[in-house]
Amino acid sequence: MVRLQTDQLHIGYGDKLIVKDLTLQIPDGEITSIIGSNGCGKSTLLKGMARIIPHQSGIVVLDGVSISKQDTKSLAKKLAILPQTPESAAGLTVGELVSYGRFPHQSGLGRLTKDDVEIIQWAMSVTGTFPFQYTPVDALSGGQRQRVWIAMALAQETDIIFLDEPTTYLDMAHQLEVLELLQKLNEEQQRTIVMVLHDLNQAARFSNHLIAMKDGRIVQSGTAEKVIQKHILQEVFQIDAEIGRDPRTNKPMCITYNLLKGDNQNVEKNASIPALAGSYA
């Protein structure tokens, strides 16, 4: 089943076209990760599909209707997006921030109803942030803050959640914590998760569906087995990768890689990466 898709989508900034003639389908109820080198259009695509930025031509369709024809509140009840570096007002508590997720469902004076409060408390409980409800968001660790933002998205009660590099600036343990939470939300609540990731091995491990991009276009999409392949990584990242298997998930993983010769020939030739750390190409 597909609820969200694009057709011949073009997105740019001014005269510069970033996403070019892009047609894709997002599998419903699965985790999709978008991978690619810096500047390839990953974040732009995510923002375009969420109507954060306008598209120049083409169409984004959600539930059979163009998102450009859906009013803001209706769209916000279906789709939530967490930017790469979300910021909250200084001194805002965890409970206050999570309560903002109820905005699309409020009317009149915007006061929280009993149902709103129950949903907010549930979102904090699911994400393990309930003990921090009266704590200022600024006082939390990076991993805790990410869980609070995810709680806000859950309080929004959308079936689809977009996340732009949710593990950026987090250490390995907190990265795993956030990704396991997203996996749990997907498996237990059938949330459709779409995220931009830089770590190839994390993308392969936690995703049902991958989209590999280069220069605003899709090079390959599908399962990890279909996308994490030597020739695909060569085209997308300009690396000569050695592909193995994750001993815990049996999914493909990038064990090590060399930079391809050419423009990068003055850079150190060999770049090995620990299996657990993943690839940050």
From TrEMBL:
It is found in: Cell membrane. Residues 4-240 form the ABC transporter domain. GO terms for biological process: iron ion transport. It is a peripheral membrane protein. The keyword Kinase does not apply. SUPFAM superfamilies: P-loop containing nucleoside triphosphate hydrolases. GO terms for molecular function: ATP binding; ATP hydrolysis activity. Keywords: ATP-binding, Cell membrane, Ion transport, Iron, Iron transport, Membrane, Nucleotide-binding, Transport. Pfam families: ABC_tran. It comes from the Bacteria. One of its GO terms (cellular component) is plasma membrane. Gene3D superfamilies: P-loop containing nucleotide triphosphate hydrolases. SMART domains: AAA (SM00382). InterPro entries: AAA+_ATPase, ABC_transporter-like_ATP-bd, ABC_transporter-like_CS, P-loop_NTPase, Siderophore_ABC-ATPase. This is Iron complex transport system ATP-binding protein. It comes from Falsibacillus pallidus.
